[in-house]
Write a structure and sequence with these properties.
3 domains; Heat Shock Protein 90; globular; alpha+beta; about 375 residues; binds adenosine-5'-diphosphate; Beta-Lactamase; 12 helices; five-stranded antiparallel sheet
Amino acid sequence: MEYAMAEQDGRDGSGGSGDAARFFDTAPGIFLILSVDGVILRASRMAARALELLPEDLVGRQVTDFVSEEELPAMMRARDEVSYGVMAAPVVLRATAASGASRLISWDGTACDDGSLCMVGVDITENPEFVSRDAVDAQMRQAQKLESIGTLASGVAHEINNPLNSILNYAQLIIDDAPPGGDAGEFAGEIITESNRLAKLVRNLLTFARTDAGDLVPVNPADVLESALSLTRASLRRDMITLEEKVEEWLPEIWCRPQQVQQVILNLVLNARDALNEQFAGRDPAKRITVSLEAAERNGSPCIMLTVADQGAGVPEALAERIFDPFFSTKPAGMGTGLGLSISYGIVRDHGGALTLESGAGGGASFRVCLPVRPAGAPED
Ligand code: ADP
C-alpha cells in the first residue's frame, strides 16, 4: 500500500522536503507515522534517539520490533484503536533501545486522512509518575471496553468494507459498460451513492463511539431530561407505555454537552420501551418506565443521578457484562445495532461520570447515570 505523505516527503526518514519533513526533523517530540500494518513510514529524530538509532534505521521496520512480547497485545490494541479512531486514553509501552536499555513511552495517536497512523509519544522513563494513578486505573478500566471496541469494530468494519469495495467496483464496471443514457448506468450510479452512504455510516458510527465533540455548557438537568423525553412521548403512547417522572425540585446546574446527554437518555428510555414491548404484547399495568432525577454525591463530589427503570424481562446475569460492548444486541436483526449502550457509556465516561446497570430485584432493568456537576474541563467559578 502506498501512502501519500511518505511518497511526498521521502521514505528514508532522514528528512525529505516540505514543512512536514522539517517538522519531523526539528520538533522536540517522539513522532511516528505507521502504515495500518504497523510498518514505520516516518520517524522523528527524537523517536530515533529514544531507541538509540537514526531515523533511517527505523523506517521500514515493524513497530512491534521495538516492544517486548508481553506488551505486543497492548501495542496491537493501541494500533487498532488508533486506526478506528477510538483511542480514549494514552497507552504506556516499554520500548527496547539498541543498547538493550528500556524506555517507558506514553503513546497517543490518531488516524491520518490517508489511512496511516500518526503516533505521538512522551518518554516518561525518568518520571513514570507523569502518568498518574488515576490515569492508569482509567486506562485499565478502559482496556476491557476498548479491547472489544478494537476487535469488534475492526472485525465489523472489515466485514462491511471489503464487500462494500467490491460492490463499488462492480457498480463502476457496470457504469463503464452501460450504454449511454440507459437505465443500467443510472441504477449503478445509485448503487455507488448508496454504498458510499453506507461506508460513511460505518465510519460515523465508529468515530461517534469516541464521543469527544463539543463544549461543556451549564444547563438545568431537568430541562435536558425534558427535551429528551419529549422526543419519546409519542412512541411510548403508541405502545401503551406509561412514563412516570420523578424529578427532584432543587437540582444543581450541571456542566455537560446537552445533546450527548439527551442521547444517553433517549437510548435508555427506548431500550426500556423495547424491553417492555417484548415482555407485554398489549396493554398492561406493568408497562411503565420510571425516570428519576436527583442530586447525589459520587466520590465525594456533587453529581446528579438519573435512573431509568422498567419492568421488562431484565438483563440475565450472564449478559450483564456484555450489554455495554459495542455491537452486542439481543434484538432481532434490523432492530438493534448494539451501539446504544456502548455509545452512552462513552458519553457518560467522557463527562467523568458513570453508567451502570442496577439489576432490579423483582425483574426489570434499572440503569443509573451519574454525571458530575462540574466535570474536568468545566471552567472554575
Ligand atoms: P441495541 O438496543 O441496539 O440492542 P444497546 O447497546 O442499546 O443496543 O443494548 C444492548 C443490549 O442490552 C440489548 O440488545 C438488550 O439485550 C440489553 N438491554 C439494554 N437495555 C435493556 C433493558 N432496559 N432491559 C433489558 N435488556 C436491555
